[in-house]
Amino acid sequence: MSIALTTQDTTTAPLLDRYGRRHTSLRLSVTDRCNIRCFYCMPAEGVVFRPRDELLTFEEIERFVRAVVPLGVNKLRLTGGDPLVRADLPKLVERLTQIEGIRDIALTTNGMLLDRHAAALKAAGLRRINISLDTLREEVFQQITRREGLDQVLAGIAAAQEAGFEQIRLNAVAIRGLTEPEIIPLAEFARARNLELRFIEFMPLDADHHWSNDQLLTGAEIRRCLEQHFGPLVPATRPDASQPAVDFRFADNRGGIGFINPVSEPFCGDCNRLRLTAEGQVRNCLFSQVEWDARRLLRSGATDDELRSLVRECVAAKAPSHGIGAEGFHQPERPMYQIGG
What are the residues facing 16 on neighbouring strands? Predict the structure, then answer.
């Protein structure tokens, strides 16, 4: 039985889906463009990016966020493509930090341009930053990204530390047959710099649709490898049940380690995330086959209540899980760089 919402409910009632999950985290893609071509995210050639006029303006992004904050959204993450490709990104960060009710703003980047922008992002109010680092070997970096640039990423990490970010995480995608030799060197790199390192299982979101289960290097396997080298890992506290990572610390307290295991150990039951693509489509899951067009509302004079109703409709349609491995699962047509990480 459905219950009609009053105007006040539409404005202030929390974003609950059919399974009782409360949605408080919004991932904002600011561009589909990127300066590398990681095979787990983008095709090598022939990429067609959205025209600039199809992307949401900073003003439109800010308005969308202001509309959904009364529904309980209080955490933002800026993604892409690579968000640092978007000009004047610190100006957007500054706008978003001034919205009452937003408690946390983070950014995920490949790090290639971070050395140029880290200080400005910190000054604008960015609190946390995740940097992709799958390897410390240039030849493997080029195999994954189809571009040169490992030194630029390392310079970006150093710049983020110099800028004084509260939390810097390194994200490493785990791919069987390719990244096993990277596990220990990445952990030693993170420990030496007192950084958090998270291993992320390779998901079926590649542009070429070549993903197969044979490429799955699970978090459990990586943990065993780390414990054989460093000794037992100590479970860390989990302040937020909806966070995707299961975190540990090393026994000597030098650095933290985490595992994001969406394929082998799905965490859909605690998911609190929504996504807004760079061109203004709302998605309730990375693997959703359906989108809700917020840009149309933003550009047609719709009210904030109409925007909130659209978001509620999106949340209400959320599936119980992403369905990877289930009969009838279909990889989304849109790859990761078009959706936003």
Answer: 22
Question: Interhelix angle for 150-163 vs 114-124, to 10°?
Answer: 30
Helices within the chain (DSSP H only) = 7-12, 58-68, 89-97, 114-124, 138-145, 150-163, 183-192, 219-230, 294-298, 304-316, 336-339
Domains, the chain: 12-339 (3.20.20.70)
pLDDT tens, 199-227? 999 987 767 667 778 889 999 999 999 99
Round to whole Å and give the CA distance between 7 and 70: 13
Report pTM.
Answer: 0.93
User: Cα–Cα distance between 64 and 68 in angstroms, integer?
Assistant: 6
7 vs 152, more confident? 152
Residue 161, Ramachandran bin (φ over 0: left; ψ between -120 and 50: alpha; else beta): alpha
Nearest CA among 160, 61, 182 for reference residue 114: 160
Return the residue matching tokens 């590398």: 36
